[in-house]
Write a structure and sequence with these properties.
It is a single chain. Helices cover 46% and strands 10% of the residues. It is α/β, with parallel strands linked by helices and 693 residues long. It has a six-stranded mixed beta sheet with strand order 6-8-9-10-7-11, with helices on one face. The chain has a five-stranded mixed beta sheet with strand order 1-4-3-2-5, with helices on one face. α1 packs antiparallel against α4, α16 packs across α20 and α17 runs antiparallel to α18. The chain is elongated and about 145 Å long. The two termini are 26 Å apart.
Length: 693
């Protein structure tokens, strides 16, 4: 299955459970408060300045002499070389206006000028202390007030490590019991992983019965598996089940642009955890800081290595008797540093793999418990049709089915809605605005019937479930749905060879009928080449190379890409082997279709008129053509008989079970040596993905 579903839907999960740590919102509030305080300080400074100063204005000495001559002056005060002139006529009743004049003549001359004018003249000594106090009040006081306001705000911003100066503080989100809203009841399809974690939770609840026999609490448990399988969900379930504090954070939250921040945050995290022991610390996506120090995996980053070294030191240093457990999750275990994976640090590696058939049924039941279902729903059929799907895929399918039910005006989800939701998730919605020309409809029809007919004629192929030529939004102009009869974990060589012939059946039908080929087989060729190369390089199914392993699988839980580990000459020979295998498969597909050309034409003609036919209808037409029966307009008139064993051997066909409901062309992986883990969409048999050109 295409499992590029983030087991962390939001990347950075919002923490609704710790209102004391609001992150950016808290910083915004602090900055706003700082600006308000600054504004208030400026207003206060202006007010103090106004109070300290009078409402005087400066005039020239000539103007002062003119006012004296015109008898407009009431009082004159001399202090420190400045004349303060109070006029007789005041503009305001509440405030005495005055003027400042610089002294331009000596005291004796000034005294003579003012004699006989009736003007009151005062001489005052300079007030040095007053000037000093005025300066202190007007300048230093606002500065001190502003400084203390800044200190207060910085403390608030740094509280919890979220502020500018708190870069070295841990950003772990603290949960307590039941706050996550998730328990082990919400986790299905991962019974082995649940059992391992339940043991750990039980140890924290009842340490006595373990320590009595000499057992110690594991220091750490590493959750490993593909995206979307429920690693983070399991960690949340542990938080919901444990009666101890639960610290959760992502590996990327340790590292910042400042050197040494990551190591500081690791120290702070473990200090906080030790204070709250017993407790559980969960580090999601630990490969962000735990990547190997080997240069092959991007080593040489001093900041990340310092963070890793600090983490290693802390995991070695804490006392397990206090009940401190480290949980971590990753889908890239191959890049983790060996020192991190050794016993004594991460004692347990818990595999959270793709669920099997039983697991998928349980997952569907969990996600469907709050959804209204009608009596037609068969979750086992849906589970069988979605081999390779992970929990997030199945949850999405249930949700899409509920949306479809509401869209169609139904109050309960039917089996038809579930089938449609599987198609929507795998190949997209029907693209109703794309109208194919009559010639393109014929080509697409023969292409898809070529796939279906070749698979029906092979004993080791999977039964056809549905054929359609309705374009889909993911680029497919048509597709064939196949569903396995049972869950499989191994593929035989004959099944893989039948798969190759099935992939190339569409291209073969185009060449036989139209004497040309189109771009519609691009995805088929890609998938066939991938399978053929895996057969030769990984599965030892080549006569030339025998049991020699020529490729290794990288990123097992992500892309699963195979990398050749052989010389250039051997790689060239591998290419020749792949070419020969594909050529043989293509010729076999053309042979089968040529021998059953009449069935190909009849089924393709019926598909053109109906656009979509079921696997049951396909087999009815095929059997009728093989028996020489004329195909009626209504296929219900044809007998719905079971195919006998003799017929199965004679025609080399595999008949679908009527009760199976959905698609699956994806071949199940064989442990480490899997064909590919790429969704049903990748193998939804035989897309016409490139036919849009």
């Amino acid at each position: 299955m295409n499992n590029h579903m983030d087991n962390r839907p939001d990347g950075n999960r919002p923490n609704r459970n710790n209102p004391g740590n609001q992150g950016p919102n808290k910083n915004r509030q602090s900055i706003l408060a700082f600006l308000i305080c600054l504004l208030i300080s400026l207003v206060c400074l202006s007010f103090v300045t106004d109070m300290m100063s009078d409402s005087s204005s400066e005039i020239t000495y000539d103007k002062f002499i003119e006012m004296v001559d015109k008898d407009q002056v009431k009082e004159v005060t001399l202090q420190s070389g400045v004349l303060t002139v109070v006029p007789k006529i005041q503009k305001s009743y509440y405030q005495n206006a005055s003027y400042k004049v610089n002294q331009m003549e000596d005291v004796d001359a000034l005294t003579k000028r003012l004699e006989g004018t009736g003007i009151v003249f005062h001489y005052e000594q300079p007030d040095a202390m007053g000037e000093f106090v005025s300066t202190m009040i007007s300048v230093l006081l606002p500065t001190v007030v502003l400084f203390f306001m800044l200190m207060f705000l910085m403390r608030r911003m740094n509280k919890g490590g979220s502020g500018i100066m708190g870069v070295g503080k841990s950003r772990a989100k603290a949960y307590i019991q039941k706050e996550t809203g998730v328990t082990f009841k919400n986790v299905a399809g991962q019974e082995e992983a649940k059992e391992s974690l339940q043991e750990v939770v039980d140890f924290l609840h009842n340490p006595g019965k373990y320590t009595a026999i000499g057992a110690k609490l594991p220091k750490g448990a590493l959750l490993v598996g593909p995206p979307g399988t429920g690693k983070t969900l399991l960690a949340k379930a542990v938080a919901g089940e444990a009666n101890v504090p639960f610290f959760s954070l992502s590996g990327s939250e340790f590292v910042e642009m400042f050197v040494g921040v990551g190591a500081s945050r690791v120290r702070d995290l473990f200090e906080e955890a030790k204070k709250n022991a017993p407790c559980i610390v969960f580090i999601d996506e630990i490969d962000a800081i735990g990547k190997s120090r080997d240069s092959r995996y991007g080593g040489g980053n001093d900041e990340r290595e310092q963070t890793l070294n600090q983490l290693l030191a802390e995991m070695d240093g804490f006392d397990t008797s206090k009940g401190l457990l480290i949980l971590a999750a990753t889908n890239r275990p191959e890049v983790l540093d060996p020192a991190l994976l050794r016993p004594g640090r991460f004692d347990r590696r818990i595999i959270v793999d793709r669920p099997d058939l039983k697991g998928r049924v349980e997952i569907l039941k969990v996600h469907a418990k709050d959804v209204m279902l009608d009596e037609t729903v068969d979750l086992e059929a849906i589970a069988l049709a979605t081999s390779g799907a992970v929990g997030s895929d199945l949850a999405n399918m249930i949700n899409e089915a509920a949306i479809l039910a509401v869209k169609n005006g139904r109050r309960a989800v039917s089996q038809k809605d579930l089938q449609e939701s599987v198609e929507v998730v795998l190949v997209g919605k029907e693209k109703k605005d794309r109208i194919l020309s009559p010639q393109e409809r014929r080509i697409v029809s023969y292409h898809e019937v070529g796939h279906a007919l070749v698979n029906a004629l092979q004993k080791d192929a999977e039964p056809v479930q549905k054929i359609t030529i309705v374009p889909r939004t993911m680029g497919a102009l048509g597709y064939v749905m196949q569903v396995p009869e049972e869950e499989k974990y191994l593929n035989t060589q004959k099944e893989l060879e039948a798969m190759l012939v099935g992939y190339l059946g569409g291209r073969a039908a185009e060449e036989i009928v139209f004497d040309t080929v189109t771009t519609g087989a691009a995805n088929d060729i890609e998938q066939a080449t991938k399978v053929a190369r895996a057969m030769i390089t990984q599965y030892g199914m080549s006569q030339k190379f025998g049991l020699m392993g020529l490729a290794t699988q990288e990123n097992q839980y992500l892309s699963g890409r195979a990398v050749l580990n052989c010389g250039d000459d051997t790689a060239t020979e591998i290419d020749h082997e792949v070419m020969q295998l594909l050529h043989y498969s293509y010729e076999e597909a053309k042979r089968l279709l040529s021998e059953h050309r009449e069935a190909l034409d009849k089924i393709a003609g019926y598909l053109i008129s109906r656009e979509t036919i079921t696997g049951k209808e396909f087999m009815k037409i095929f059997r009728a053509v093989e028996k020489g029966i004329e195909i009626p307009e209504n296929l219900d008139e044809l007998p719905d008989e079971e195919v006998k064993t003799e017929e199965k051997k004679e025609n080399q066909e595999k008949v679908q079970k009527p009760e199976l409901v959905e698609v699956q062309v994806e071949e199940q992986n064989t442990g480490d040596a899997a064909v590919s883990d790429e969704t049903v969409a990748d193998e939804t048999d035989n897309h016409e993905s490139d036919s849009e050109e």
